[in-house]
Amino acid sequence: MEHGIVHKLTPEQEELEKKKLELATLETELAEKELNLATFQAELNAFEQEYMRVIGVRYKELERIKAQINKYMALIEKFPIVGKFRRQPFSCLNPTS
Does the pTM exceed 0.70? Predict the structure, then answer.
């Protein structure tokens, strides 16, 4: 029969051990959340780049078309007869007319 020395922890030491375990658990949870954050940030960055690649090109094209329309509208305004017809709705666009 072995008789060893049994070391009994004081209440303060027991509390310290509990806090160490709690800290280790929280540190693990923090590391997981930091990894999730880094993953989400990378995914967001990839999405933003793809968005700008696809939608940004379309916005540039839209701005080019708007500028072209404005140019043609200014040209039309120089011709009073054409400008008069421009102000009236197009009958071909309104099938009820």
Answer: no
